[in-house]
Structure formats: C-alpha cells, structure tokens
Amino acid sequence: MPPGARGAASADRRHVPLASAERAVHRRSALQQVIACGPGYGTISGVPTLRIAQEAAADELLGRDPLALLLGMLLDQQFPMERAFGAPWLLADRLGVENLDAAALARPIPRN
After folding, report:
1. Do 32 and 65 contact (CB within 8 A), yes or no?
2. Segment 5-64, tens digit of pLDDT
3. Residue 50's beta-bridge partner residues?
4. For the segment 82-106, what is each residue's pLDDT rounded down to a tens digit?
5. CA 108 to chain centre
6. Could you tell me which of 30, 11, 48 has the C-alpha nearest to residue 59?
7. Do the beta carbons of residue 63 and residue 42 sit within 8 Å?
8. What is the pTM of this model?
9. Which residue, among 94, 87, 56, has the nearest Cα to 69 in the 3D structure?
10. Distance CA 92, CA 105 (A)
11. Are 92 and 63 a contacting pair, CB within 8 Å?
12. Which phi and psi angles does 78 have, rounded to 5°?
C-alpha cells in the first residue's frame, strides 16, 4: 500500500470518533430532557428523578421502586414510552400497594 493511501485511511479513521462524540453529545442532551438532575434525586441510590411517564405519581414510583422501573423498561419495548413507564403505577394503584413486589405479583390468587 502506498504511504499516501495509508495516511488517507488513517485520517478517515480519526474522523469517526469525532462523529461518535457528536452523537454522544446529542444523546446526552436528549437524555437531559428526560432526566431532571439536581437536588431532587429519587430514593433508589444513584437514580435521578425521572420525568418519563408524564404523570407525577408514576414518575415518583419509577424513582423509588426498582421493579417499577424494570417493568417500565420491559414494556417500553412494545408500547409508547409514556404508556409503558406509566403502567407500573397503574398496576400498583389497581393492586392498592405503594411498592411493587415481584413475589407478591407471582403468588397465585386464592380461589374461593
């Protein structure tokens, strides 16, 4: 390979990380619109207050209940984001519980 051609290929490779860095900046700015960082952190250690479900009660549940956050992420694969992340709150509300418990959800319903 001629030395000039190799240098051109190296220059092209050096440009790719710059494009990746620009994409990362764009992703971060989009994420900052969803996550409100600051003094209002949720109660899950290291998880900022989330503003995803477009409902304050649903967002508060996502910030304090790891199972609710996991269920929202799973549902996000099939439903629009706001509906998916609001579903754990709707489930907890219908069950009449403050926090979702995987063992309680898996327990069979007693039949009379």
Report:
1. no
2. 555 544 444 444 445 555 555 555 555 545 544 444 445 666 677 788 889 999 999 988
3. 35
4. 999 999 999 999 999 999 999 988 9
5. 30
6. 48
7. yes
8. 0.56
9. 87
10. 10
11. no
12. -120, -20
